[in-house]
Amino acid sequence: MAKKTKAEPETKETESGFNLGKFFNETKEELAKVVWPSRQQLISESAAVLLMVILSATIIYLVDGLFSWASGQVF
Question: Is 33 among the domain residues?
């Protein structure tokens, strides 16, 4: 039986083969690859999203009002 080195964490695999230590290490590696936006980029893109949501909601409201009025005229 081979001895475990310090680099190998002593985590047990469950019956499904899931290794919690490996999962957290791989998650940490993936998060290190993420390119996080700057504060200015975050603010400007958030403002653009809010503006588009407000614009879309307004258009839907106006079209709904138009159809309500038109159905009131027909029926």
Answer: yes
**Which residue type does 35 have?**
V
Q: What is the pLDDT of residues 10-60, one digit of tens each?
A: 556 556 788 999 999 999 999 999 999 999 999 999 999 999 999 999 999
Task: State which residues form the domain around 31.
Answer: 18-72
Instruction: State residue 44's pLDDT score.
Output: 97
Whether the Cβ atoms of residue 64 and residue 71 lie closer than 8 Å to each other: no
Q: What is the pTM of this model?
A: 0.57
Q: Say if CB 10 and CB 18 are below 8 A apart.
A: no
Distance CA 11, CA 4 (A): 11
What is the tally of structural domains in the chain? 1
Instruction: Please indicate, yes or no, if residue 6 is contained in any of the structural domains.
Output: no
Q: Residue 46 contacts by C-beta under 8 Å, 6 or more apart in sequence?
A: none
